[in-house]
């Protein structure tokens, strides 16, 4: 036996941490598996959690308050649809090394790129304004004070964190913020839920042929399957390759492709399941409390929190309001970041939260501009809180052309090389696109008939 091996054995014998220690082995094995699982849950988890932003909370609350348990089936429908379209988006980023806008600028006309990016920037900026307003109102409910102060505090803090925090640390913060969503599961404990009716509402669709019903469906689809989520997850997969030097776009390095696709699928399914569980909890909570008490006119997530006090108690209101703040802190960076990635990739600028501000000045300027305009909306006569519900409807309408473009893109070999998407995932992506299109058309017909 070599001197090196003898010394190796001797060292481990003295420390008790070598391979001969069963307890150490088991501990090391467990910690490795846990770290591995955490590492696998990345862009998909954050994307899914950010989907339940204050705008989404307002939409789900209003849906439950207006329509009761009977709207719960939409969460069962949207889960496979949103999981498919998000997995497709993630694959685009992992395969090509570019986000959606980066691929559009390389393979489509500048006009199409400019229209898509402009609409996304506008929608995300309005959403940021609405989310900041909801967070401010929720904080005011909790501790008092002036809403405008909280708008500035949350807005500036979110932008500063994105610009100045180390990327890996920032992603870790976002992962921890996903825990704030469990506030809505906890809030269910304070509601008298008719679980039989709730289960029937989830499993048995009972559509009502009215403009309000279909507008609500589009709002739910729009806040659940939102364009900014496609752009964010694709760009984050590309970003991870810039951070991890061992990773290369799969069009350049084919080895390990299936392992990466398996990781993306697991990450996306967990993230979307988490998102839909929270959304369903909010709908059931609103149905069991607000709808049951006849309170159907809920204009925002903050209104929903305030309305819970006389029905479910002050503690339920507090939990609900804290959840709004936590999810807003998670969603605003995703909204501003998605807008910055789209604009920056479309212009072929250096982009990425892993880059230092000097190395990607234009990217961070767009991010700050989007958040800044969102903050400014709260100082205008336009009340962004009243736009929570309709911003989700707008997102639903805008999602249709973006989803069509995405589905056409992933069949192009000059984009995806040998990794063109086909089979069940491809058709589920088109089904998701068709469902969004049909709901928008039905809303338009219902609106026209209802007003005629």
TrEMBL record:
Positions of transmembrane segments: 111-130, 142-165, 172-193, 213-232, 269-293, 319-341, 361-382, 388-410, 425-449
Natural source organism: Bradyrhizobium retamae
Compartmental location: Membrane
Keyword Protein biosynthesis part of the UniProt annotation: no
Gene Ontology cellular component list: plasma membrane
Domain of life: Bacteria
PANTHER family per UniProt: NATURAL RESISTANCE-ASSOCIATED MACROPHAGE PROTEIN 2, SOLUTE CARRIER PROTEIN FAMILY 11 MEMBER
One Pfam family named in its UniProt record: Nramp
Membrane-topology descriptor: Multi-pass membrane protein
Biological processes annotated in GO: iron ion transmembrane transport
Protein name per Swiss-Prot or TrEMBL: Iron transporter
